[in-house]
Automatic annotation (TrEMBL):
The lineage of its organism: Bacteria, Bacillati, Bacillota, Bacilli, Bacillales. It catalyses: ATP + protein L-histidine = ADP + protein N-phospho-L-histidine. The keyword Iron does not apply. The keyword Nucleotide-binding applies. This is histidine kinase. It comes from Cohnella fermenti. PROSITE patterns: HIS_KIN. Keywords: ATP-binding, Kinase, Membrane, Nucleotide-binding, Transferase, Transmembrane, Transmembrane helix, Two-component regulatory system. GO terms for biological process: phosphorelay signal transduction system.
C-alpha cells in the first residue's frame, strides 16, 4: 500500500499543478488524492502504528496517528465516488448552466453528509456503514462509468488519448467500488487490499499516456520537444546559411552583370550565353534560400480577429484549379470569431492542402472540415491518398524530411504548419495508414484563440471534377512540400 499511496498522490499533484483551470483535471486529481488517503490509512495501520507500539511511544504519537488514519480511511470511502462522478459529468463534455454547476456538487454531497452525521463512527472493523453507503456510492461510480464511456472522440486522432483515460481510470475505480463497498456490504471485509493491482495498472496507463498520446491534454511531450528543438536548430542554421549564400550570390550577380555588359559591348555571343547561365543560377540560388528561410524563420505572430470558417473556405477555394478529377468536399461553419494570425494560419492550411493534392495526383477525394469540441476548434484535412507507414508518419513533421522528388520540395510544409499551430497554443496531429490515406488535424484551443461563436451563415460543400460527393479520406503526407 505504500506504493499506492505515493503513486496516487504523485498523480494527484501532477494533475492539480499541470493545469489549474481544468475542471476535469481538478476532479480527477481529487479521485487520485482520496484514493491515496485510503492507502495512507492502510500504511498507518500496518506500519507506523505497530512500529510506534513496538518502541513504546504509542501513547505520545499513536492516538494522533489513529485519528489521522480514521480521517484518511473515511475520506477515501466518501471522496472517491463523489469526485469520480463530478469528473465524469465534466468529462462528458456537456457544459452545465451556472446554477447547475453549483447545485449539482452540493446535491451529490447529501448522502455523504447523511452518512457522516447519522451513521456509526469509525472503527477498525467498520470504518463506515457499508450497508448504507453501498446504495449511493456504487450508483455514483456506475453512472460515472457510463458517462465516461458515452463520450466518444469526434476524431480518430483523439481516440488513443480517450482510451488511455478509460484504461487508467475506469478499471481501478470499478474495482474500488466492488472491493470497498459491494463485498464488505455482503460481509467480506478487508478486500481493499487487492486494490493494489488495479491501481498499478491505472498508474502505468497514466504514465504511458504522458509519454505517448497524452492524458487529457497533458503530456511529457518528448516528441513535441524534439520537434521544437529541431525547428529552432533549423531556424538558426538557415539564418546563417541564408546570410552567407545571399552575400555570395549577390557578388556573383554583381560581377556577372559587369561581365554581361562587357560581352555585349564586345559582341561575344558565346561568352554572353555563358554569363546568362551564371546569372540565372545565382538568381535561382537566391530564390531557393529565400524560400527555405521564409518557412523556417522565427515566427512573429500578428494576431487579429478573423472568422475561422471563412478562412477555411478561402483556403479550400484556392486549390480548386489544381484538383483535376479529385472530388472536394468542404464543411466549415462560419461564425467562429477567433484572435489569430490569419495569414500564418491560412499559409499553414494551404501547405496541408497542397500536400494532399499532390498525394492524390488528380484522383480520389479530399475533405476539409471545421469542427468544434468543448475546448477546441479543429480543422480536418482528409484524403484518399496512398498514406504512410508508421516510420514515415513518425518522421513527417521533421524539417527537410520528404520522399517526394524535385528541387523545389524541401520537406518544410508540414513542419511550418506544425510550428504555426504551436505558436497559437494549438497542435497538429497526423493519422495515416498505407492504402487508407492520411488525415491531418489542426487544433486551436478556444481559450487561446479567444473564440466566440457568432451567428453562423451556413456551410459549404462543393466539389471539383464533376463530383458532388461528400467523402472521407487520408492524405499522403509522405510526399510533402
Amino acid at each position: 500500500m505504500l506504493f499506492v499511496w505515493i503513486a496516487l498522490w504523485a498523480v494527484a499533484a501532477f494533475m492539480l499543478l499541470a493545469d489549474r483551470r481544468s475542471a476535469d483535471l481538478r476532479r480527477l486529481g481529487g479521485v487520485a488524492f482520496f484514493g491515496g488517503t485510503g492507502a495512507l490509512a492502510a500504511v498507518l495501520d500496518g506500519r507506523f502504528l505497530p512500529y510506534l507500539d513496538g518502541l513504546g511511544r504509542y501513547e505520545s504519537w499513536g492516538r494522533l496517528l489513529y485519528h489521522v488514519q480514521a480521517a484518511s480511511s473515511v475520506s477515501s470511502y466518501y471522496g472517491v465516488p463523489y469526485f469520480f462522478l463530478l469528473f465524469a459529468i465534466s468529462y462528458r463534455g456537456r457544459a452545465l448552466s451556472r446554477r447547475l454547476s453549483i447545485a449539482v456538487p452540493l446535491l451529490l454531497l447529501a448522502p455523504i453528509v447523511y452518512c457522516v452525521l447519522f451513521t456509526p463512527g469509525y472503527t477498525e472493523r467498520m470504518p463506515i456503514s457499508y450497508t448504507i453507503a453501498v446504495w449511493w456510492a456504487v450508483p455514483y461510480i456506475a453512472v460515472g462509468v457510463v458517462l465516461v464511456l458515452m463520450r466518444k472522440p469526434r476524431h480518430a486522432a483523439w481516440s488513443s488519448g480517450y482510451w488511455i483515460v478509460c484504461l487508467s481510470v475506469l478499471p481501478p475505480v470499478v474495482f474500488f467500488a466492488v472491493m470497498n463497498f459491494v463485498l464488505p456490504s455482503l460481509g467480506m471485509m478487508r478486500m481493499w487490499v487487492y486494490n493494489t493491482w488495479f491501481v498499478g495498472l491505472g498508474v502505468a496507463a497514466f504514465v504511458l499516456g504522458l509519454f505517448t498520446y497524452g492524458f487529457m491534454g497533458l503530456s511529457v511531450l518528448v516528441e513535441r520537444r524534439r520537434l521544437d528543438s529541431a525547428m529552432r536548430v533549423v531556424t538558426s542554421g538557415t539564418a546563417i546559411l541564408n546570410h552567407a549564400i545571399k552575400n555570395d550570390a549577390g557578388k556573383i550577380k554583381l560581377f556577372g552583370e559587369k561581365m554581361k555588359a562587357y560581352a555585349q559591348s564586345t559582341s561575344q555571343p558565346d561568352l554572353l550565353e555563358d554569363i546568362e547561365t551564371v546569372l540565372r543560377a545565382s538568381s535561382h540560388m537566391q530564390e531557393m534560400i529565400s524560400r527555405v528561410h521564409r518557412r523556417t524563420e522565427e515566427l512573429v505572430l500578428r494576431p487579429g480577429e478573423a472568422d475561422l470558417g471563412e478562412l477555411v473556405k478561402a483556403a479550400a477555394a484556392t486549390v480548386v484549379p489544381r484538383l483535376g478529377r479529385t472530388r472536394l468536399a468542404v464543411e466549415a461553419e462560419e461564425g467562429w470569431r477567433c484572435r489569430l494570425d490569419a495569414a500564418q494560419v491560412a499559409e499553414a492550411l494551404n501547405n496541408v492542402l497542397s500536400n494532399a493534392i499532390e498525394a492524390l495526383n488528380g484522383e480520389g477525394a479530399l475533405t476539409v472540415r471545421l469542427a468544434a469540441t468543448k475546448r477546441e476548434l479543429i480543422v480536418e484535412v482528409r484524403d484518399t491518398g496512398p498514406g504512410m507507414d508508421r516510420a514515415q508518419a513518425r518522421r513527417a513533421l521533421e524539417p527537410f524530411y520528404t520522399t517526394r522528388g524535385g528541387a523545389a520540395n524541401f520537406g518544410l510544409g508540414l513542419p511550418y504548419a506544425y510550428h504555426v499551430m504551436r505558436k497559437h497554443g494549438g497542435s497538429l496531429h497526423l493519422d495515416s495508414r498505407p492504402g487508407k490515406g492520411t488525415a491531418v488535424y489542426l487544433s486551436l484551443p478556444k481559450k487561446a484563440a479567444k473564440a466566440v461563436k457568432a451567428a453562423a451563415t451556413g456551410k459549404i460543400g462543393h466539389s471539383a471534377a464533376g463530383g458532388g460527393e461528400r467523402v472521407g479520406a487520408h492524405q499522403g503526407m509522405d510526399r510533402r512540400g
